[in-house]
Specification:
With 307 residues, the protein is of the alpha/beta class. It has two domains: 208 residues, Rossmann fold (3-Layer(aba) Sandwich), CATH 3.40.50; 77 residues, rRNA adenine dimethylase, C-terminal domain (Helicase, Ruva Protein, domain 3, Orthogonal Bundle). Helices cover 36% and strands 17% of the residues. The protein is built from 13 helices and nine strands. The strands form two sheets. The chain has a seven-stranded mixed sheet, sandwiched between helices. The chain has a two-stranded antiparallel sheet with strand order 1-8. Strand 2, helix 4 and strand 3 form a beta-alpha-beta unit.
Protein backbone atom coordinates (compact mmCIF):
# COMPACT_ATOMS: atom_id res chain seq x y z
CA UNK A 1 0.00 0.00 0.00
CA UNK A 2 1.50 3.34 -1.01
CA UNK A 3 1.39 6.46 1.13
CA UNK A 4 -1.48 8.87 0.61
CA UNK A 5 -1.23 11.95 -1.62
CA UNK A 6 -0.93 14.23 1.40
CA UNK A 7 2.08 12.29 2.60
CA UNK A 8 3.66 12.31 -0.87
CA UNK A 9 3.75 16.09 -0.78
CA UNK A 10 6.24 16.17 2.10
CA UNK A 11 8.14 12.90 1.60
CA UNK A 12 10.76 14.61 -0.54
CA UNK A 13 13.85 16.64 0.41
CA UNK A 14 12.37 19.72 -1.26
CA UNK A 15 8.97 19.36 0.38
CA UNK A 16 10.44 18.91 3.84
CA UNK A 17 12.87 21.80 3.34
CA UNK A 18 10.00 24.10 2.33
CA UNK A 19 7.98 23.22 5.42
CA UNK A 20 10.95 23.81 7.69
CA UNK A 21 11.68 27.17 6.04
CA UNK A 22 8.06 28.19 6.48
CA UNK A 23 8.29 27.36 10.17
CA UNK A 24 11.66 29.08 10.49
CA UNK A 25 13.04 25.87 11.95
CA UNK A 26 16.46 24.30 11.48
CA UNK A 27 16.94 20.61 12.33
CA UNK A 28 18.63 20.29 15.72
CA UNK A 29 21.57 17.98 16.28
CA UNK A 30 20.84 17.85 20.01
CA UNK A 31 17.66 15.91 19.24
CA UNK A 32 19.07 13.88 16.38
CA UNK A 33 16.57 15.36 13.92
CA UNK A 34 16.66 13.84 10.44
CA UNK A 35 13.32 13.81 8.61
CA UNK A 36 12.27 10.89 6.41
CA UNK A 37 12.04 11.94 2.74
CA UNK A 38 11.89 8.57 1.00
CA UNK A 39 8.47 7.24 -0.06
CA UNK A 40 9.80 3.71 -0.60
CA UNK A 41 11.21 3.61 2.93
CA UNK A 42 7.89 4.85 4.30
CA UNK A 43 6.07 2.06 2.48
CA UNK A 44 8.50 -0.52 3.89
CA UNK A 45 7.97 0.75 7.42
CA UNK A 46 4.18 0.54 7.10
CA UNK A 47 4.37 -2.93 5.58
CA UNK A 48 6.66 -4.25 8.34
CA UNK A 49 4.30 -2.91 11.01
CA UNK A 50 1.45 -5.05 9.59
CA UNK A 51 -1.13 -2.54 10.78
CA UNK A 52 -4.84 -3.04 11.32
CA UNK A 53 -7.75 -0.81 12.29
CA UNK A 54 -7.65 -2.40 15.75
CA UNK A 55 -4.12 -1.17 16.57
CA UNK A 56 -2.95 1.62 18.82
CA UNK A 57 0.41 2.94 17.67
CA UNK A 58 2.97 4.95 19.60
CA UNK A 59 5.17 7.13 17.37
CA UNK A 60 8.21 8.79 18.91
CA UNK A 61 9.79 11.76 17.17
CA UNK A 62 6.73 12.57 15.06
CA UNK A 63 8.39 15.69 13.64
CA UNK A 64 6.40 17.19 10.77
CA UNK A 65 3.90 14.32 10.73
CA UNK A 66 5.21 12.47 7.67
CA UNK A 67 4.84 9.05 9.26
CA UNK A 68 1.97 10.14 11.52
CA UNK A 69 -0.30 11.02 8.61
CA UNK A 70 0.48 7.69 6.97
CA UNK A 71 -0.36 5.82 10.17
CA UNK A 72 -3.59 7.65 11.03
CA UNK A 73 -5.88 6.18 8.31
CA UNK A 74 -4.54 2.67 8.91
CA UNK A 75 -5.03 2.26 12.68
CA UNK A 76 -7.50 2.86 15.48
CA UNK A 77 -5.36 5.37 17.35
CA UNK A 78 -1.98 7.12 17.06
CA UNK A 79 -0.08 8.58 20.00
CA UNK A 80 2.42 10.99 18.42
CA UNK A 81 5.16 12.22 20.76
CA UNK A 82 7.41 15.11 19.73
CA UNK A 83 9.87 16.89 22.02
CA UNK A 84 10.49 19.94 19.79
CA UNK A 85 7.73 22.46 20.47
CA UNK A 86 8.62 24.43 17.33
CA UNK A 87 7.44 21.49 15.20
CA UNK A 88 4.21 20.82 17.07
CA UNK A 89 2.04 23.46 15.31
CA UNK A 90 2.89 21.95 11.90
CA UNK A 91 2.38 18.43 13.29
CA UNK A 92 -1.05 19.33 14.66
CA UNK A 93 -2.00 20.92 11.35
CA UNK A 94 -0.86 17.84 9.41
CA UNK A 95 -2.97 15.45 11.50
CA UNK A 96 -6.01 17.74 11.76
CA UNK A 97 -8.06 15.69 9.26
CA UNK A 98 -7.89 12.68 11.58
CA UNK A 99 -9.56 12.61 14.94
CA UNK A 100 -7.67 9.51 16.10
CA UNK A 101 -4.28 11.20 16.61
CA UNK A 102 -3.16 12.42 20.02
CA UNK A 103 -0.19 14.81 19.82
CA UNK A 104 1.98 15.08 22.93
CA UNK A 105 4.84 17.56 23.22
CA UNK A 106 7.20 15.88 25.69
CA UNK A 107 10.44 14.00 26.18
CA UNK A 108 9.60 10.31 25.79
CA UNK A 109 12.38 9.35 28.20
CA UNK A 110 10.74 11.25 31.08
CA UNK A 111 7.12 10.75 30.04
CA UNK A 112 4.88 8.35 31.97
CA UNK A 113 4.71 5.78 29.18
CA UNK A 114 2.28 3.53 31.04
CA UNK A 115 -0.24 6.37 31.21
CA UNK A 116 -0.16 6.71 27.42
CA UNK A 117 -2.03 3.41 27.07
CA UNK A 118 -4.29 3.73 30.13
CA UNK A 119 -7.75 2.31 29.43
CA UNK A 120 -6.76 1.19 25.93
CA UNK A 121 -7.13 -2.55 25.29
CA UNK A 122 -6.19 -2.39 21.60
CA UNK A 123 -3.17 -4.26 20.24
CA UNK A 124 -0.21 -1.97 20.90
CA UNK A 125 2.69 -1.24 18.59
CA UNK A 126 5.51 1.25 18.24
CA UNK A 127 6.22 2.60 14.76
CA UNK A 128 8.81 5.36 14.64
CA UNK A 129 11.84 6.91 13.01
CA UNK A 130 13.72 7.23 16.26
CA UNK A 131 16.01 10.16 17.01
CA UNK A 132 19.54 8.77 16.78
CA UNK A 133 20.59 10.16 20.15
CA UNK A 134 18.18 8.07 22.20
CA UNK A 135 17.34 5.03 20.06
CA UNK A 136 19.19 2.32 22.00
CA UNK A 137 18.14 3.50 25.45
CA UNK A 138 14.52 4.00 24.40
CA UNK A 139 14.19 0.59 22.73
CA UNK A 140 15.50 -1.15 25.84
CA UNK A 141 13.18 0.92 28.05
CA UNK A 142 10.12 0.15 25.90
CA UNK A 143 10.87 -3.56 25.93
CA UNK A 144 11.71 -3.71 29.62
CA UNK A 145 8.63 -1.83 30.79
CA UNK A 146 5.44 -3.95 30.82
CA UNK A 147 3.52 -1.86 28.27
CA UNK A 148 1.81 -4.74 26.49
CA UNK A 149 3.56 -3.98 23.19
CA UNK A 150 3.30 -6.60 20.46
CA UNK A 151 5.68 -5.15 17.89
CA UNK A 152 8.14 -2.32 17.34
CA UNK A 153 9.13 -1.17 13.86
CA UNK A 154 11.82 1.45 14.26
CA UNK A 155 14.34 3.22 12.07
CA UNK A 156 17.75 3.47 13.74
CA UNK A 157 21.39 3.87 12.80
CA UNK A 158 22.69 0.87 10.86
CA UNK A 159 25.27 0.24 13.61
CA UNK A 160 22.53 0.06 16.25
CA UNK A 161 20.51 -2.34 14.09
CA UNK A 162 23.56 -4.57 13.69
CA UNK A 163 24.16 -4.62 17.42
CA UNK A 164 20.55 -5.50 18.20
CA UNK A 165 20.51 -8.39 15.71
CA UNK A 166 24.08 -9.62 16.37
CA UNK A 167 24.85 -13.25 17.09
CA UNK A 168 27.43 -14.58 19.59
CA UNK A 169 31.13 -14.43 18.68
CA UNK A 170 30.72 -11.41 16.40
CA UNK A 171 32.16 -7.95 16.93
CA UNK A 172 28.69 -6.35 17.15
CA UNK A 173 27.42 -8.75 19.83
CA UNK A 174 27.13 -7.13 23.23
CA UNK A 175 24.89 -5.97 26.06
CA UNK A 176 22.38 -4.35 23.66
CA UNK A 177 22.11 -7.61 21.70
CA UNK A 178 21.27 -9.54 24.88
CA UNK A 179 18.90 -6.89 26.25
CA UNK A 180 16.84 -6.77 23.05
CA UNK A 181 16.91 -10.46 22.09
CA UNK A 182 15.97 -11.47 25.63
CA UNK A 183 12.58 -9.81 25.10
CA UNK A 184 12.05 -9.72 21.34
CA UNK A 185 12.71 -11.49 18.05
CA UNK A 186 14.84 -9.14 15.92
CA UNK A 187 14.85 -8.80 12.13
CA UNK A 188 16.34 -6.13 9.90
CA UNK A 189 13.73 -5.14 7.29
CA UNK A 190 15.81 -2.88 5.07
CA UNK A 191 18.90 -0.69 5.08
CA UNK A 192 18.40 2.97 4.18
CA UNK A 193 20.96 5.32 2.62
CA UNK A 194 21.68 8.72 4.14
CA UNK A 195 19.74 10.28 1.25
CA UNK A 196 16.50 8.87 2.69
CA UNK A 197 16.59 11.67 5.28
CA UNK A 198 16.80 15.46 5.39
CA UNK A 199 19.24 16.67 6.36
CA UNK A 200 21.26 13.62 5.31
CA UNK A 201 23.01 12.08 8.35
CA UNK A 202 26.63 10.95 8.21
CA UNK A 203 25.59 7.33 8.69
CA UNK A 204 23.31 4.79 7.05
CA UNK A 205 20.13 3.68 8.78
CA UNK A 206 18.04 0.53 9.01
CA UNK A 207 14.41 -0.35 9.56
CA UNK A 208 14.20 -2.98 12.30
CA UNK A 209 11.22 -5.08 13.35
CA UNK A 210 11.04 -6.34 16.92
CA UNK A 211 8.34 -8.89 17.68
CA UNK A 212 7.92 -8.86 21.44
CA UNK A 213 8.07 -12.28 23.08
CA UNK A 214 5.19 -13.39 25.30
CA UNK A 215 7.87 -14.63 27.70
CA UNK A 216 11.61 -13.86 27.81
CA UNK A 217 13.80 -16.03 25.59
CA UNK A 218 15.21 -17.92 28.59
CA UNK A 219 14.19 -18.57 32.19
CA UNK A 220 15.87 -16.15 34.60
CA UNK A 221 14.79 -15.88 38.23
CA UNK A 222 16.77 -12.74 38.99
CA UNK A 223 16.97 -10.36 36.03
CA UNK A 224 19.06 -7.86 38.00
CA UNK A 225 21.77 -10.47 38.46
CA UNK A 226 21.35 -11.71 34.88
CA UNK A 227 22.21 -8.32 33.42
CA UNK A 228 24.94 -7.85 36.01
CA UNK A 229 26.57 -11.03 34.71
CA UNK A 230 26.05 -9.90 31.10
CA UNK A 231 27.62 -6.50 31.73
CA UNK A 232 30.56 -8.13 33.48
CA UNK A 233 31.11 -10.45 30.53
CA UNK A 234 31.30 -7.58 28.05
CA UNK A 235 33.08 -5.02 30.23
CA UNK A 236 36.46 -6.21 28.93
CA UNK A 237 35.88 -8.34 25.87
CA UNK A 238 39.34 -9.93 25.86
CA UNK A 239 38.92 -11.40 29.33
CA UNK A 240 37.88 -14.99 29.89
CA UNK A 241 34.41 -15.42 31.34
CA UNK A 242 35.99 -16.64 34.60
CA UNK A 243 38.07 -13.47 34.99
CA UNK A 244 35.20 -11.25 33.83
CA UNK A 245 32.92 -12.66 36.52
CA UNK A 246 35.58 -12.42 39.18
CA UNK A 247 36.24 -8.77 38.42
CA UNK A 248 32.80 -7.60 37.38
CA UNK A 249 30.27 -9.32 39.62
CA UNK A 250 32.58 -9.48 41.70
CA UNK A 251 33.33 -12.88 43.20
CA UNK A 252 36.38 -15.05 44.02
CA UNK A 253 38.08 -16.43 40.92
CA UNK A 254 37.67 -19.99 42.21
CA UNK A 255 33.92 -19.47 42.62
CA UNK A 256 33.72 -17.95 39.15
CA UNK A 257 35.45 -20.98 37.65
CA UNK A 258 33.15 -23.34 39.56
CA UNK A 259 30.05 -21.42 38.43
CA UNK A 260 31.17 -21.76 34.82
CA UNK A 261 31.75 -25.48 35.16
CA UNK A 262 28.37 -26.06 36.83
CA UNK A 263 26.72 -24.18 33.96
CA UNK A 264 28.53 -26.34 31.42
CA UNK A 265 30.68 -23.44 30.20
CA UNK A 266 34.45 -23.66 29.82
CA UNK A 267 35.93 -21.01 32.18
CA UNK A 268 38.45 -19.93 29.54
CA UNK A 269 35.80 -18.96 26.98
CA UNK A 270 35.23 -15.29 26.38
CA UNK A 271 31.90 -13.77 27.33
CA UNK A 272 31.15 -12.66 23.79
CA UNK A 273 30.82 -16.31 22.74
CA UNK A 274 27.98 -17.10 25.17
CA UNK A 275 24.40 -17.16 23.94
CA UNK A 276 21.29 -16.19 25.90
CA UNK A 277 20.69 -19.66 27.31
CA UNK A 278 24.28 -19.92 28.52
CA UNK A 279 24.10 -16.52 30.22
CA UNK A 280 20.89 -17.66 31.95
CA UNK A 281 22.49 -20.92 33.09
CA UNK A 282 25.54 -19.05 34.36
CA UNK A 283 23.36 -16.62 36.30
CA UNK A 284 21.61 -19.50 38.05
CA UNK A 285 24.92 -21.01 39.16
CA UNK A 286 26.37 -17.66 40.25
CA UNK A 287 23.36 -16.69 42.38
CA UNK A 288 23.85 -19.09 45.32
CA UNK A 289 27.57 -18.26 45.47
CA UNK A 290 27.08 -14.58 46.18
CA UNK A 291 27.05 -13.32 49.74
CA UNK A 292 23.83 -12.25 51.39
CA UNK A 293 20.58 -13.98 52.35
CA UNK A 294 19.92 -17.15 50.43
CA UNK A 295 16.52 -17.99 49.00
CA UNK A 296 15.39 -21.35 47.77
CA UNK A 297 14.06 -21.78 44.24
CA UNK A 298 10.48 -21.66 45.47
CA UNK A 299 11.08 -18.33 47.21
CA UNK A 300 12.55 -16.47 44.27
CA UNK A 301 10.33 -14.58 41.90
CA UNK A 302 11.44 -13.03 38.63
CA UNK A 303 12.60 -9.50 39.20
CA UNK A 304 12.57 -7.21 36.21
CA UNK A 305 15.57 -5.00 35.73
CA UNK A 306 16.77 -2.42 33.25
CA UNK A 307 19.96 -3.66 31.61
Amino acid sequence: MMPSDGVDAVVTPGGTARVLRTLGVRPRKRWGQHFLVDAHALTQILSAADLSMHDTVLEVGAGLGTLTTALAPRVRRVIAVEVDETLVPSLRSAVAPWGNVQVICADIMTLDRTALFAGDDSPRKVVANLPYNLASALIVALLEQPLGLRRLVVTVQREVASRMAARPATSEYGVLSIAVQYRADVSVVEYLPASAFFPAPEVESAVVRLDVRAQPACVVHDETLFFRVVRAAFSQRRKTIRNALAGGVPMPAADAAEACQRAGIAPMRRGETLDLAEFAALTETVAPMLSGPKEGPQGRGRRRARP
